[in-house]
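Chain and backbone:
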Amino acid sequence: MESNSYDVTVIGAGPGGYVAAIRAAQEGKCVALIERDALGGVCLNWGCIPTKALLKSAEHYSFLAQAADWGFEIGEVSVDWQKVIARSRKAAKKLSGGIGFLMKKNGITVHKGAARYLSANRIEVTDAEGDAIELQTTHSIIATGARPDSIPGVKIDNERVITSREAMVLPERPESLAIIGAGAIGVEFAYFYAAFGCKVTLIEYLGAILPSSDEDVSAALDKSFRTRGIDIHTGARVLGVEVDGDSATTTFETEDGTASVKTDAVLVAVGVRGNTEGLGLEKIGIELDSGFVEVDGHCETAARGVYAIGDVNGPPALAHVASHEAAHVLRHITGENIEPIDYDLVPSCVYCHPQVAAMGLSESEARKREIEFDCGKFPFTASGKAVATGDTEGFVKILSRKDDGEIIGAHIIGTEATELIAELVLGKSAELAVQDIQLAIHAHPTLSEAVMEAAADATGEATHI
């Protein structure tokens, strides 16, 4: 068995793993990266990037359908579904190839195969042919990600009952689709398929769509989706899905009784489970919590020198969290005296239309913590730029401590919300007060003025509402 020695070995080449490998190499470490599938992980190949390409196609299609409102007479718009899918796959392939270039540029050794711990400092890698090598390593980082989960009574067959992976590459556009779960993945696909004329039924167990969002945001998105013809059932417990030939029937229960919906396909979007099988974690004393690897505030596991980052260590399952954790771990490995990761600074983004973005506490969370706060809110209907561009759905909402103006939460629904949230994340990271955001000069006309105006509303000095 061939042997190789490394300072840092990373298992998994997603947005956590490849960033960890690059940062380790930049610190002068000898680095190995183990990946059994494509470089870039789910995010680049089957998640963040290809879905955003699909959503952009939906956005363009929606615009073209309303082109007359903008003074364009272009007639009926037809869709080449295969080209829509192909463009998405092309974007994913391009970026995945770029990761390979970055590995070579940084002198990182890539081992293709499945990893298994023999001890905390010894990892076996077995390739597709069954050949194995053993790697010796001082530190290791588990970044194996997660995969779609399901619920009792719902068996995923990847044909009629599908996951997000199949939803990205369906060979034909379905006439109808039921989506179980109205979190970020569920609402993004609900918007995408509804935009292309599919009859979408969205079923959520909790009391609102995007249930982890601020209540005002959830309500606004619910209203927007219903105007688009999406059927929404909240507080609904799915009892089962029955496949019958070329259709599937989803049965669910609400306070009004039992109901069912028959559709061409059913998308299960109820969350993820960590990819931990076959890693030999039990051999090195690593335990799981609800299927995810337990870690401390620096992402270190119970096995000293072994870290776990990204989706495999549990929510929030976001690519940028994985990348941030990767950089943090390398700082910890190199001995920097750093504070544990503050997850209140994590922005969450949903790329449906209208977009949704948030950071920090919602109103209900602030009340649970017994924080006295001010709330500033500014609607895009009062934004000159939003009116000019014809996209006035939504608002910016900022929560700040009543005593000192510290920003404790920000919630945006509307056009380019996922871009606008960065200003407020930076503001909170820099420990700015809400008045600092208000007093910063924002260019006119821009959507970012809505952030400034919401900040002004929080201090009682709003001028445009």
Summary: The radius of gyration is 24 Å.
